[in-house]
Structure formats: structure tokens, C-alpha cells
Write a structure and sequence with these properties.
By secondary structure, this protein is mainly α. A two-stranded antiparallel sheet has the order 1-2.
Length: 289
């Protein structure tokens, strides 16, 4: 069987001398046409490899390598719009990608936990994920198959999004775009939160039922709308406190964007807690496949 250190069965997944020869030939061709863009062939080549490694890190769940790549990617253009610096950054990212690849290959054979798994629980998880149990039992289960996110991971995602927003606005040199990002991003985060918590987990009685029974507020259900309200309030808070002058305060706007995204993930109740203990009515029916 294959083990780390041996050639891969379908060939190498890193750059080899043949690739360097191709890049060198393209670079010479570019130099003969336009000497100011000789780095473009190497940059394009490295971008393709790094993008493939980025997808591989997602599939293999190597969160650290994936996040570092995304954090460092804007450095190809920020703060210097220079192709030589971009090439140097991409070369460093390629080295980082190779490090992640080597780390993953060293862990072969993978998924050894499969042999010690609880077969009953594994089967139940498989049936639930593929909709084979049917409605409503597929939703009323204790198997942890829903998306969950830790505070640390939520902070990393929020920081990553904020960093990309900052570089994007810097690139176009439009500070007024902060307002657009806050309004659109805040609304989008609030809507995402509402959809995640209300479908297919509907209110216990209909809207008309609330009116005619004078149960206009159902605290045990309506508590899920507090988080979207807090998110929207946070997004517009700089404008309420400082007016339009807050657009020029980059630090304040970036901190608000970070906080809006972070609150989307961490505000209670958690999605798992709500789906297992919430006061709701399951909407519709889902038949087994």
C-alpha cells in the first residue's frame, strides 16, 4: 500500500521541472512582447495551483491552512500595487500550501476512526443527512448533524471578512462604500439569521391566530427575532451616534462590520439548542426518499 514518501499513484500534485520550463518559456515570450509584465505567466500559474490547494483544504478540513491563505491573499495587491511583490507573496503562499499538503499526506491512512465508529449511530446519521427517515422524525433527533461554530472560529471568520472588505474599499479608494457594506451586510446577516431559525421551524400559531387570540407576542418563539434586531441596530449604530461623519472613521466602520458578522454567529440561542428545544411548529412535511 501507498505510504508517505512514495510517489503518488496519479503523479505529483506540486510543481515539477517541466512546469518551470513552461513558465520560463512563457516569461521569455512575454518579455519579447512587453517587458513590464514579465511576471504575469508565473503569477497566473501560481494562482491556479494555490486555488486548487484552497479547494483541497476545504475538502480535507484543514482550517488553519485555508484561513492563512485567505488572510494573506490580499497582500498580493495591498499595500503595494506591484507585480514583483505579488509574485513574491504568491511564492510564499505556494510554499504554505505545500506545507499543508505534506501535513495531510503524512496523516495517511485517513479516516481510521471509521473502524472504531458506533455503527448504529453512523447509520442513523447517514439516514438523517440523506432524508431517509422522513418527516418529522428526521428533524426531531439528537444526532449532531447541524452546523455549529465555536466563538474562536466565528471571530476568525469575522476578521477575515472585515479584512477583505477593507482591502476591497482601499483598492477602489471609495470610503463611502463602508455605508453600503454596513447596510447591505447588516440586512443580509439579519435575514440569514431569520431564515436559519424560522424554516421549517414556524411559529406555534398563525399570524391571524395571534391577532384573534390576543397573543401578539409569544416570548418562547419570538426571542429568535431579538438577534436580527440587535444585528441591524449594531449596523446602523455609527450613523445614529455620529451621523454621516462616521464614514470617514475607518476604524469605527471596520469594527462595526466585524461586530455585525460576529454577532450573527454567537448571539443566543444557538441553532442546535433552538432546533432541539425551541417552541415552534414544524412546517410542511418531508417524505423519505
Amino acid at each position: 500500500p501507498w505510504r508517505f514518501g512514495k510517489p503518488l499513484p496519479l503523479g505529483p500534485v506540486h510543481l515539477v521541472w517541466v512546469d518551470l520550463a513552461v513558465v520560463g518559456a512563457l516569461t521569455l515570450l512575454m518579455y519579447s512582447v512587453d517587458m513590464f509584465y514579465v511576471e504575469l505567466p508565473a503569477i497566473t500559474f501560481l494562482l491556479g495551483f494555490i486555488f486548487c490547494h484552497l479547494l483541497a483544504f476545504i475538502l480535507t478540513r484543514q482550517f488553519v491552512f485555508f484561513v492563512v491563505l485567505l488572510f494573506a491573499a490580499p497582500l498580493t495587491s495591498y499595500p503595494f500595487m506591484d507585480l514583483k511583490i505579488a509574485l513574491a507573496v504568491l511564492a510564499g503562499l505556494y510554499g504554505w500550501s505545500l506545507l499543508g499538503l505534506q501535513k495531510y499526506l503524512k496523516g495517511f491512512p485517513w479516516e481510521t476512526r471509521f473502524w472504531q465508529a458506533d455503527w448504529g449511530r453512523e447509520q442513523l446519521t447517514y439516514y438523517i443527512k440523506n432524508g431517509l427517515i422522513g418527516w418529522p422524525h428526521g428533524k426531531l433527533n439528537t444526532v449532531e448533524h447541524e452546523l455549529s461554530i465555536s466563538l474562536r472560529r466565528a471571530a476568525v471568520i469575522s476578521g477575515l471578512c472585515t479584512w477583505w472588505v477593507y482591502v476591497f474599499i482601499w483598492f477602489f479608494n471609495e470610503p463611502n462604500m463602508y455605508a453600503s457594506f454596513l447596510f447591505c451586510g447588516g440586512s443580509g446577516c439579519a435575514l440569514f439569521r431569520i431564515l436559519a431559525y424560522t424554516y421549517p421551524y414556524w411559529q406555534p400559531i398563525s399570524f391571524l391566530g395571534r391577532i384573534f387570540t390576543f397573543r401578539w407576542i409569544i416570548p418562547r418563539y419570538d426571542k429568535i427575532f431579538l438577534a436580527p434586531l440587535i444585528i441591524i441596530s449594531t449596523a446602523i449604530s455609527p450613523f445614529l451616534l455620529f451621523g454621516r461623519s462616521c464614514v470617514g472613521i475607518n476604524g469605527l466602520m471596520l469594527a462595526t462590520i466585524f461586530l455585525v458578522i460576529l454577532l450573527t454567529f454567537i448571539l443566543p440561542p444557538s441553532l442546535k439548542s433552538w432546533r432541539l428545544t425551541g417552541h415552534y411548529r414544524l412546517l410542511g412535511g418531508q417524505r423519505g426518499k
